[in-house]
Amino acid sequence: MQKLSVDTNKQKDLLEKRTKELIKAYNHISAYYQLEQIYSEELSGKTGEAQKTIKSRMRQAIEDNGFNRPEMTSGECNKAIKELEA
After folding, report:
1. 62/68 Cα distance (integer angstroms)
2. What does 22-68 look like in DSSP terms, one character per residue?
3. Prediction pTM value
4. 23, 81 in Cβ contact below 8 A?
5. What does the pLDDT read at residue 7?
6. How far apart are CA 45 and CA 49, in angstroms?
7. For residue range 31-48, what is the model confidence (pLDDT) as tens digits?
8. CA angle 64, 68, 71 (to 5 degrees)
9. Helix, coil or strand: residue 80
């Protein structure tokens, strides 16, 4: 019975650790989304190209380089964080 308790505590600790890591990752995604907002706004002002077009082009370039296309917004990240912290 004691082994079961030790294993359960290890799993609980691991779940807590992974939850914290996931929250940190969501915060990073949110920060990169804000960075994208800033650079696309600045580029838009300098080039006259629409901010949405710049974002779309840059996201496509990311995908073309073999990475997942960024889709998650700060709001979605914040919602996910709140759900994990509940």
Report:
1. 7
2. HHHHHHHHHHHHHHHHHHHHHHHHHH---HHHHHHHHHHHHHHTTSP
3. 0.79
4. yes
5. 83
6. 8
7. 999 999 999 999 999 999
8. 115
9. helix
